[in-house]
Amino acid sequence: MNGRRGPAFWLLAAFFALFVLFLYGPTLTILVLSFQGPQGGLTFPMNGVSLHWFGNLFEKQMVGDFAGSLQRSMVLGLAAMLVTVFASFSAGLAFRSRFHGSAFIFYLAIASLIVPSILISLGIGLLFRVLGWDTAWYSSAFGAHLTWTLPFGLLIMFAVFNRFDRRYEEAARDLGATSWQTIRFVVIPILLPSLIGVGLFGFTLSYDEFARSLYTAGTFNTLPLEIYGMTTNVTTPVLYALGTVTTGVSFAVIALALVSFAWVRRRRLRHGSDAGKAA
Predict the structure, then answer these.
(1) pLDDT one-digit tens code per residue, 46-67
(2) Where do the structural domains in the chain lie, given as residue ranges?
(3) Is the pTM of this model over 0.85?
(4) In this model, does residue 107 exceed pLDDT 90?
(5) Is 108 in contact with 144 (CB distance < 8 Å)?
(6) How many other CB atoms are found less than 10 A from the CB of residue 29?
(7) DSSP code string of 109-124
(8) Is residue 71's pLDDT more than 70?
(9) What distance in Å separates the CA atoms of residue 57 and residue 48, rounded to the nearest whole number?
(10) By percentage, how much of the chain surpasses pLDDT 90?
């Protein structure tokens, strides 16, 4: 081989570069425009550079409630994350053994993935209206988000448990561990990176969900609904500042997950080293 790159390589490289530009270009544009000066507009060229619009974002707005919507989305995302992790892990344990009706329950659980999100939102909203209940971000929207986060969590945990070596559990029981001790001290530590991944997935899916919140959030908006509403009313770079802040929150969540993965890896290496010294 002469090491020369063929035309196919450069074609794929150009396609990938265009993909990255298409993916991150709008985000970078919003990031730059959010630092417009006090007299700046929504387009280039920039009229000065400042943090004015970030400060304006946290002030009381005539239109929109950024702080409240962010708080609601964070609480909703965290709640969806916890329920998704717990339910997915429990279902993963249960589905390791086949039982009557397991296939039907599995397909029923993931059926919401093939139903358009807007129909899920509309259906839940209509159901609450028929029952005489008020829709709210903490009740109907929470249930709607779980129809989105839970199926993904289930699919991930089923794949993880299919690769799990059950001899670890058998060894723990041979040493006298109870079923709960086996799960707590053996299964959960081994699957902890996957559980963190499911939690990250559940949070980001809920935090970013628009369609399933549209008819279920009730009087108070979640952050995606608030951003959508601001696009029709706000004509200043405060909208870009909002986009920059929300993107920063997303990257912070990803960074937290990566730190958690590194901590788990370091903990395993330390325990493995301690076990080797003890032997």
Answers:
(1) 788 888 888 777 766 655 677 7
(2) 67-264
(3) no
(4) no
(5) no
(6) 14
(7) HHGGGTS-HHHHHHHH
(8) yes
(9) 18
(10) 30
Mean pLDDT computed over every residue of the chain: 85
CA torsion angle 215 85 66 123 (round to 10): 0
Tokens 């009087």 belong to residue: 219
User: Which pLDDT does position 147 carry in this prediction?
Assistant: 92
The domain made up of 67-264 has a fold known as MetI-like fold (1.10.3720)
The answer to whether 84 and 154 are in contact (CB under 8 A) is no
Distance in angstroms (rounded) separating the CA atoms of residues 240 and 35: 9
CA separation for the pair 33, 47 (Å, rounded) = 10
Contact between 200 and 254 under an 8 Å Cβ cutoff? The reply is yes
Write the DSSP string, 224-256. Answer: HHHHHHHHTT--STHHHHHHHHHHHHHHHHHHH
Closest CA relative to residue 95, chosen from 105, 80, 82: 105
Question: Per-residue pLDDT for 214 more than 60?
Answer: yes
Distance CA 192, CA 176 (A): 23
The pair of structure tokens assigned to 203 is 């949070």
Three-class DSSP category at 231: helix
218 strand-pairing partners: 136
CA 142 – CA 89 distance, rounded (Å): 19
Q: Residue 154 contacts by C-beta under 8 Å, 6 or more apart in sequence?
A: 87, 88, 91, 92, 106, 109, 110
Whether 100 and 180 have beta carbons less than 8 Å apart is answered as: no
In angstroms, the CA 248 to CA 153 distance is 24
Residue 210 tokens, joined: 């628009």
Cβ contacts of 183 within 8 Å, gap of 6 or more: 93
Query: Hey, what are 170's tokens?
Result: 């058998």
Backbone angles phi, psi at 232, to 5 degrees: -95, -10
For residue 146, what pLDDT is reported? 94
